[in-house]
Amino acid sequence: MSQVAETSGAPAAPAPDASYDGLRLRNLTKSFGAFTAVDDLDLDVPRGSFFALLGPSGCGKTTTLRMVAGLETPTSGSITLAGQDITYAKPYKRPVNTVFQSYALFPHLDIHENVAFGLKRRKAKEVDAQVKEMLDLVELGVQARKRPTQLSGGQQQRVALARALINKPEVLLLDEPLGALDLKLRRSMQIELKRIQVDVGLTFIHVTHDQEEAMTMADTVAVMNQGVIEQMGSPADLYENPRSTFVANFLGQSNLIEGRITNRAADLVTVDMQGIGVSIPADRAHADGDMGWVGIRPEKVLIGEPGATLDAPGNTIPGGVISDVSFVGVSTQYLVRMPWGQEIQVFAQNTGRTRLFAQGESVELSWRPEYAFLLDHAQDATAGAQKDDA
């Protein structure tokens, strides 16, 4: 089945214009024996964008990147870049560079010489000036004469980035580039990578299994699963309006509650959710049959004492009992067991306006209808929930 990348709205087949100046994949497939790693993929990446391929291990994202880099040969399909067919071009003849998780710096050369290496091999002019400009861009100008072993992991990653960018590739490929860094450094590097991409204006394609990385940096995220793109769009679109249970669970966390569709209007879908009538905006309803999964993000759920007035013009869902409480500083995370046996996750901001609830207390829940979404009941409600962080 041909997989055409979706936006958060209707599926859109990329235009067949051969003059497209970005990266274009058409019917791209890669099989290893009986296993299909990438399955009939169509994708357009606009020039100058920061694009992320996001998904769990084994979903096909790295194989896709390696085909673009020329490190894997497609089983079928085509790859064009700035209108040029590069499907079978040698890696060194492609206008792309790759930054890997392992920095692959030359330990016997200082930082300046590491960055200058490619330019000197090509006998480029004004090498020193170009290297200085690039090291200033990655804020390592004063470290130019140090060896890689004298730098931190984050600094070494910036050197690898500068060495790739100095070649002025049409596309920079980033293969899990921050995976070896600790959490605090990884977060600061996310901001740095985005700043550098904006400054240089090149196309960045970032492969990651880390949803925070993808959502922090990318203009557009394509969520991959089993060799195809489940959904593509802006980080906000994917998070707020997922079209599949896999996307709903893989990007953050979601409560998915079984319900029966009772009415479909032009702008609103009504669902009987465990005996309670709830409404979902029609443009956030993605269920074809009579049954569906009502989805709501934990931070969108309001919690209060029985009979309390909750600040949400939605339905009150009574009968909850707190089964677990986790205080995490900025918020308190509750598990609330509902009368039908399901535990609902609630993330309550610790603003001080409301008291903390204790395990065993009775509570009521509510949420605004415009925050809910509806997914097809034929989909597995647990799909994407177990992320592989290996």
Description:
With 390 residues, the chain is of the alpha/beta class. The protein folds into 2 domains: 3-240, Rossmann fold (3-Layer(aba) Sandwich); 245-376, Beta Barrel (OB fold (Dihydrolipoamide Acetyltransferase, E2P)). Helix content is 21%, strand content 34%. A 6-stranded mixed sheet has the order 7-8-9-4-10-11, with helices on both faces. It has a 6-stranded mixed sheet with strand order 14-13-12-16-22-15, with no helix packed on it. β18 and β19 (331-337) form a beta hairpin. α2 (111-121) packs across α3 (127-137) and α3 crosses α4.
Q: What is this structure's SSE topology?
A:
Layout: E1 3-4, E2 23-32, E3 35-45, E4 50-54, H1 61-69, E5 76-81, E6 84-85, E7 96-100, H2 111-121, H3 127-137, H4 153-165, E8 171-175, H5 183-200, E9 203-208, H6 211-217, E10 220-225, E11 228-233, H7 235-240, H8 245-250, E12 255-264, E13 268-273, E14 276-281, E15 285-286, E16 291-296, E17 302-304, E18 317-327, E19 331-337, E20 343-349, E21 362-366, E22 373-376
Parallel strand pairs: 1-3, 4-9, 4-10, 7-8, 8-9, 15-22
Antiparallel strand pairs: 2-3, 2-5, 5-6, 10-11, 12-13, 12-16, 13-14, 16-22, 17-21, 18-19, 18-21, 19-20
How big a fraction of the residues is strand?
Answer: 25-35%
- Element order, helices and strands? EEEEHEEEHHHEHEHEEHHEEEEEEEEEEE
- Write the CATH fold name of the largest domain: Rossmann fold
Total DSSP helices: 8
CATH architecture of the largest domain: 3-Layer(aba) Sandwich
What is the oligomeric state here? single chain
User: Biggest sheet: strands, sense, closure?
Assistant: 6 strands, mixed
Unreliable residue stretches:
1-16
